[in-house]
Known about the structure:
Elements: H1 2-37, E1 55-61, H2 67-79, E2 86-92, H3 97-109, E3 114-117, H4 126-134, E4 139-143, E5 156-159, H5 162-179, E6 187-193, H6 199-212, E7 218-225, H7 230-243, E8 249-252, H8 255-267, E9 279-284, H9 287-294, E10 300-303, H10 309-320, E11 328-330, E12 335-336, H11 341-346
Parallel strand pairs: 1-2, 1-3, 3-4, 4-5, 5-11, 6-7, 6-8, 8-9, 9-10
Antiparallel strand pairs: 10-12
Helix pairs in contact: 2-10, 3-4, 5-6, 7-8
The structure holds beta-D-fucofuranose.
Amino acid sequence: MKRASEIGKKIFFGHVGICIILLCVIPVLFIGYSLFRGFDIKIEQMPAETEEDLIVVGFSQLGSESGWRTAHTASIQQALTKDAGYFLIFNNARQMQDNQIKAIRSFISQRVEYIVFAPVIEDGWDTVLQEAKSAGIPVIVTDRMVNVQDESLYTAWIGTDAKEEGKKAGRWLEDYLEQEGRQSEKINIVVLKGTVGSTAEIGRTKGFGEIAAQHGNWHILESVSAEFTANKAKEVMRSILQRYPEMDVLISQNDDMTMGAIEAMQEAGIRFGEGGDVTVISFDATRDALELVKEGRINVNVECNPVQGVYVDEIIQRLEKGEPVEKYYVVEEKVFTRENAAVFLEGRKY
Length: 350
Ligand code: GYE
């Protein structure tokens, strides 16, 4: 009997034990898998009944990697409001093209009236955009560009001229070196690039590269991606500073990376900005970075304008009235240095 009850206990606790183990292991496996997949995105669904006169728009934003991105998202959300006559379905793809494709497919199956999207990279959109076209849904691309075989797959694009931004950075450096009397000196440059394959990275790299190629004394020591984020830039910069103590110029393709790089330079005791050993060139011109331009810690900031929502609204309104729209709209952008930063900081919202 004793033995039988012990065996019973063993079986009972054996089962309970297995259950407990399973209860612990399954959630851990599930969380692990979700982390690995970057969490499956949930795509907001259109309510069964929307007010009839609202225009339903699905907006796929590529992520939330930077201050610029936050301002771009806000600009779309502030333009496509209920008061302005829209029902907006927003989705954040967290830097993953797959998530954007899923979101666009969900917008198609929900039969939205317009799809607006900011593509994370340029390639790989032909199939999903063909699906939108076949469903008769106009697509408005914003911010970055798509590289598709057939340009009729999207109705219009509104964004910034990334290549011109890169050239502006190069031209500023030319003038600056000349003013300093260093136009014939050897100039060692490091480039922190954004997301590889994105329009901002491709354009800024090309634009700056074209100017650099005209100067035999400019040496690009390294051109490396820090994915448009401050954390990654800090890590990358720490290693760069160890390998290239002779670096003269930092070209950082967005303000968030510049902030990270600056932290790494501060840690390493490197003097940067006006009067320093490293000249800092940044892109975007968000508020925080403009403050640093005003203080002379960033030498120049090439503006990239995120305020694109008003144009998206205008394009949709024209399409609604059956009016023609341009294929490409480029927003206006400036260059900020210590001389003009303060004036523009006053009215800056982002
Ligand atoms: O410069 C950067 C962002 O695509 C223009 O993306 C945009 C860039 C912007 O993450 O901060």
